[in-house]
Design brief:
The chain has about 550 residues and is an alpha+beta fold. The N terminus is likely disordered. About 30% of the residues lie in helices and about 30% in strands. The radius of gyration is 30 Å and the shape is elongated. The protein contains ten helices and 30 strands. The two termini are about 35 Å apart.
């Protein structure tokens, strides 16, 4: 499946925690594999042995960024949800990816997972910070306990981070009387945090430098911490500049990972936090952690369900349009198979029989995913079928479809295509290769060989592209073999791509069109180590008989 032309700039995996490591730049042009092995695109030098040799991969496919776990021992976590091995998960802006001791923020995807603004941190002397011991919720006064029970019901029904944060902060400020409260997330820089939501009984306006960096740094270790307002003047200047009298920062943890922070403080009016502030804040933070785990699980489930829905739409279009897997037309007989992949379903295949003996053959691949790609695939295939019947010249037919695609599809949609006419009497194949390239000819009793040609640009890019028909001579008993790039680009269980070499090796000893199909799929499944292939895999073999 081809990706869109110039699909996007690189995305970045920005380290938020873990051993020192540079930001990982991920290009849409190649798969980025992360792990301990020196053969990985990005090597993660992990001394804890919690990172596998090939741990996870990030890549661009059919208009979407994905991450997969590469059968790692300790798992890859997306927003603290463990991914199933080899199951693709779509990425969104500000997602958190956890691999071994590292947590990365996803930046540059352009599809926001949550909306928040960032604010600069102000420093506070860490000697003024105390760790808070775990406390029992039973120590809270009855009205506080009732408020917690009400909050539990509210955040349990929250379906987004923003709604969860709103319910928690309303309980803290409006219900429990805290002067100011915020829910924060790390923003990838030591002096910056993201503000999910904030509440205040005062003017409520946030400015840069509203939060103590030292307090958040200590809370990042996993324990709630308290900043007291009675420190010596030399230690308190930075906090006095902020007008902070007291502050508490309680980590919001999902599993063992700190996912966010509950931050409460008093500002400049001589106020103090409520007497039971430490216990209440810890209880609210724990509830938020449980709610976040559920929200993140539901969000990932929604993404996966949408991906499956998109794939099902495209697969249904394919099913309705493809010809039977075996057949014959005059002196020509064929076999074909189309197997839908895990990520996309955009292959097209068609046969165009002519009454006087020749047979038109079409194999292509539509960029994009889901219903839009399915519609483009169906429209292009039906248009090309009609044009081939009318023109018989592949170049003229492809030219017509290129004009149609340009006028009807999105700017970043295109089609790679091979379209040809096999003439068993003239013993020729006249064809146009529009950026497809996956074509072999197997002479009788000889190994397959690549069909070399000048080729043309893919469909849907340039209106003035002059498509040109090329031709090769064939012999009785020879076979034309076309396949999609799902074969070429399939990753192996041990790394590397199946490639043209894999297809050629698989077909060297096969004796018929049916043998070609069986041999090709047996080889690619063995190479992949699974029968769940990454991309559509389509292959067709047409044998030229004696006319």
């Amino acid at each position: 499946m081809p990706s869109q032309i110039n699909p996007t700039s690189e995305i970045r995996l920005v380290p938020l925690s873990g051993p020192g490591i540079a930001t990982i730049d991920v290009s849409p042009d190649a798969r980025t594999v992360m792990g301990r092995s020196s053969t990985c695109t990005t090597v993660l030098p992990d001394e804890t042995m919690s990172v596998s040799r090939e741990h996870a991969a990030v890549f661009w496919k059919a208009g979407e960024w994905y991450i997969t776990d590469e059968n790692s021992r300790h798992g890859t976590f997306l927003n603290d949800v463990r991914l199933d091995p080899q199951a693709p998960a779509p990425l969104r802006e500000e997602d958190r990816v956890r691999i071994g001791p590292w947590v990365f923020a996803v930046r540059g995807v352009g599809q926001a997972r949550r909306s928040h603004h960032t604010t600069l941190l102000a420093d506070a002397n860490s000697t003024r910070i105390e760790r808070i011991q775990a406390t029992n919720v039973a120590a809270l006064a009855q009205h506080r306990f009732d408020l917690l029970m009400e909050l539990a019901a509210g955040i349990a029904s929250a379906d987004s981070m923003e709604r969860m944060a709103s319910a928690a902060l309303d309980a803290l400020v409006e219900g429990a009387g805290f002067p100011r409260a915020s829910i924060l997330v790390d923003a990838g820089k030591s002096d910056t945090v993201g503000v999910i939501a904030s509440r205040s009984r005062g003017d409520g306006g946030l400015r840069d430098g509203e939060f103590s960096s030292s307090l958040i740094r200590e809370a990042r270790r996993g324990d709630p911490v308290l900043l007291r307002g009675n420190a010596p003047m030399a230690q308190a200047m930075s906090v006095l500049d902020l007008g902070i009298d007291e502050a508490i920062c309680a980590p919001i943890s999902v599993g063992s990972n700190v996912a966010a922070y509950l931050y409460v403080d008093t500002r400049g009016r001589g106020e103090r936090l409520p007497q039971d502030a430490q216990t209440f804040a810890q209880a609210v933070a724990r509830m938020c952690g449980l709610a976040m785990a559920n929200i993140q699980r539901i969000e990932l489930q929604r993404r996966t369900e949408q991906m499956v829905k998109d794939l099902d739409a495209a697969r249904e279009a394919q099913r309705l349009l493809i010809p039977p897997e075996f057949g014959a037309h005059g002196a020509l007989r064929y076999a074909m198979r189309m197997r839908s992949g895990r990520f996309v379903a955009g292959d097209l295949f068609d046969l165009v029989p002519f009454a006087d003996g020749p047979l038109g053959v079409i194999l292509g691949d539509v960029s994009g995913k889901g219903i839009g790609a399915a519609i483009l695939m169906a429209a292009a295939q039906s248009r090309l079928h009609a044009a081939m019947q009318r023109e018989r010249d592949p170049a003229r037919a492809v030219q017509e479809v290129n004009t149609h695609v340009l006028s009807r599809s999105a700017d970043n949609s295109f089609i790679t295509l091979w379209a040809g006419v096999i003439d068993p009497v003239a013993r020729t194949i006249a064809f146009v290769d529009a950026g497809h390239g996956c074509c072999l000819y197997k002479p009788p009793g000889a190994p397959p060989q690549r069909v070399r040609c000048e080729g043309n640009l893919v469909l849907g890019v340039r209106a003035d592209e002059a498509y040109k028909t090329e031709s090769i001579a064939v012999e009785p008993g020879g076979r034309l073999i076309l396949f999609s790039d799902g074969f070429v680009e399939q990753r192996g269980a041990g790394g590397g791509d199946f490639g043209f070499e894999g297809v050629i090796a698989a077909l060297t000893e096969s004796q018929s069109p049916g043998d070609d199909i069986e041999a090709a799929f047996e080889a690619i499944i063995a190479f992949a180590g699974t029968d769940s292939l990454s991309d559509d895999a389509t292959i067709a073999s047409i044998e030229i008989g004696a006319a």
